[in-house]
Amino acid sequence: MTEITYFGHSSFLVKIGDKKIVFDPFISPNKKASHIDVSTIKADYVLLSHGHEDHIADAENITKESNAILVSNYEIAVWFAQKGIEKYHPMNHGGSKVFDFGKLKYVSAVHSSTLPDGSSGGNPGGFVIKHDGGCFYYAGDTALSYDMKLIAEEFNIDFAFLPIGDNFTMGIEDALKAADFVGTKKIIAMHYDTFPYIEIDLDAAKKAALKAGKELILLNIGESITL
């Protein structure tokens, strides 16, 4: 079983066994997550899909305070190393690594990636994690891509974290197609309603998912579930 806690936007804490993994922490600048105390978040790993501020804002603090391992593409990992992060693991597209929580593969995403100071964030990506209790896909910020079909060829995906906010990423219709491509019926929604650009009709999204035979999970900020 996998325990998942939502911190808003695209930020999650996923617990696999006794290991805690934080994805794309953008919490303290997010007014909708003002009730979340970032100082209480402890992680063994911090995974970053790309370099935009709304995905890395709290990465340095959480990584340092937890003495966690930061995992991202080469450019982002090295950028954080220059900010004093001592424990980091750089990856790139198509590469896999076995960690103590399971096997992680860094997969493609169609987006952009510039770090807050204007440095190159390399190419954006997503993560597939296969562990003793199952397998899931964290898409990061991405458009729909036929590359997602390769994930279904290699993995049996139990659920997928997919953006549904449109404008900067997939909207709900493309996210439903992405779920088909990766071979799952269970979607944990992210990257929606944080800013005016990505505010969506949640009722319409729910209806579209129901019509497509998918389970669309819309978590409240601070809510935890077990899958």
From TrEMBL:
The reply to whether Hydrolase figures as a keyword in the UniProt entry is yes
User: So which domain of life are we looking at?
Assistant: Bacteria
State the SMART domains in the record.
Lactamase_B
Q: Which residues form the Metallo-beta-lactamase domain?
A: 8-191
SUPFAM superfamilies listed in its UniProt record: Metallo-hydrolase/oxidoreductase
Any GO MF annotation of the entry: hydrolase activity
Q: Which family does the record claim for this protein?
A: Belongs to the UPF0173 family.
HAMAP family xref list: UPF0173
Give the protein's recorded name: UPF0173 metal-dependent hydrolase ACFSKV_15265
Species lineage, top-down? Bacteria, Pseudomonadati, Bacteroidota, Cytophagia, Cytophagales
